[in-house]
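Supplementary Methods, section 5.1.

A reviewer requested that the exact input to the structure prediction be made available. We therefore reproduce it here, unchanged from the version used in the analyses.
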Amino acid sequence: MQEKHLYEYAVIRVVPRVEREEFLNIGIILFSKKAKFIKVLCHCNADKIQMLSNDFDVEQLQCNLTSLQKIVNGAKDGGPIAQMDMPSRFRWLTAIRSSAIQTSRPHPGMCSDLEETIHRLFEELVL
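The structure derived from this sequence is encoded token-by-token as follows.
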């Protein structure tokens, strides 16, 4: 019998005009403390984003998503947040904020394959 992993995930959203509260799902962050697993998958559809706000800076969004990826990976050039332990990085990334990039509240789950699960959630909730 395969080991089951407790995990948490959050949906990454872009909110081109915060005052309108319209958003598009653009990614998933999945975290499992016991398995020492954290991963992010993102897909930025510039055409859809610009339908919500034609002057939204998609290039800046890409830069921000690159920074997010560095934080998730704990990259040396990812700034002070990237140097935190994995649970602290996940909590920081999923903290409530009112900016152009937001996350849903974390949701729990159980699975036997974390890689398969993040790809399934990405397909279901983002693509």
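The chain has one domain: 5-125. These observations are discussed further in the main text.
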